[in-house]
């Protein structure tokens, strides 16, 4: 069993707080993704779990054991980093063997374990090559094979796909998830790419400025955001966030008028996702600012007052810029947030 608990973890760098009072329960076999903008504390959190960084306060528990005072090399975790360096003079076979030697796994088991790990990432035919004779994606897969060869209690992956091109990233994503499901190893994965987070995670932890904003399944994070930070971070394009005034069951803002629950009053922010807006309908009046056909849908930007509202329109939608347009909102999919950004629950 390798569940992980972070209990009130703090990491300060001088007077700067990198991670603030973080508590998190990661289940055995779970695939947990830490997601957030640059500098939010993802890597620091990961490095504390690995033992490469010492927390200023709090407790880290892996597999029921407090590991704060245990060295990185004695924690049973395997790490894969962005651009993870393979030894250039060793064959892929010997690169994958390296952790087995380090861990003093009996030599008669090496060949079987190396070949199994290589097969898992479809590198069985490349074991004799040196890293220089592999493509970027193959090298990244070799790094993965090296991490999984000895079945650690925990995998830690820090943006392992970020130096690969889009197509390779997509195929590696599927392979990583498949491998994690096969091996059933608790995994913590750091990324700032929301598609990676949504597709890989059992649960996502959204961080900002060292503080957890929300923990939930990808569906919960997308359809039930806790605050404007999460709402505006997830989705492509993200949720439209429109400040205005609510009174007597009506929300008003420049060019916008929609019904709202009577419990929502005062200065609030309306949230509506681009796919929950339709052309025609009369909740928003504005001007066409931009039309971007992509093949399967058309991105439409509507200007109302000084603001731009993003809409996912039908694939055949076209309109000249600067023409008046009316937009309707799916009223069952409106979100309201208070002035401090917290979601107003009905
Ligand atoms: P990125 O996506 O850019 O890698 P991140 O979310 O992983 O960002 P961290 O690397 O965890 O961010 O850093 C969190 C914050 O702590 C940042 O503001 C960073 O500048 C700061 N920080 C990290 N390491 C140190 C250090 N050794 N000394 C001082 N500040 C640090």
UniProtKB/TrEMBL annotation:
Keywords: ATP-binding, Cell inner membrane, Cell membrane, Membrane, Nucleotide-binding, Translocase, Transport. Coiled coil: none annotated. It is found in: Cell inner membrane. It comes from the Bacteria. SMART domains: AAA. InterPro entries: AAA+_ATPase (IPR003593), ABC_transporter-like_ATP-bd (IPR003439), ABC_transporter-like_CS (IPR017871), ABC_transpr_MalK-like (IPR015855), ABC_transpr_MalK/UgpC-like (IPR047641), Mo/tungstate-bd_C_term_dom (IPR008995), NA-bd_OB-fold (IPR012340), OB_MalK-like (IPR040582). The keyword Cell membrane applies. GO terms for biological process: carbohydrate transport. One of its GO terms (cellular component) is ATP-binding cassette (ABC) transporter complex, substrate-binding subunit-containing. Pfam families: ABC_tran, OB_MalK. Belongs to the ABC transporter superfamily. This is ABC transporter ATP-binding protein. It comes from Rhizobium straminoryzae. The lineage of its organism: Bacteria, Pseudomonadati, Pseudomonadota, Alphaproteobacteria, Hyphomicrobiales.
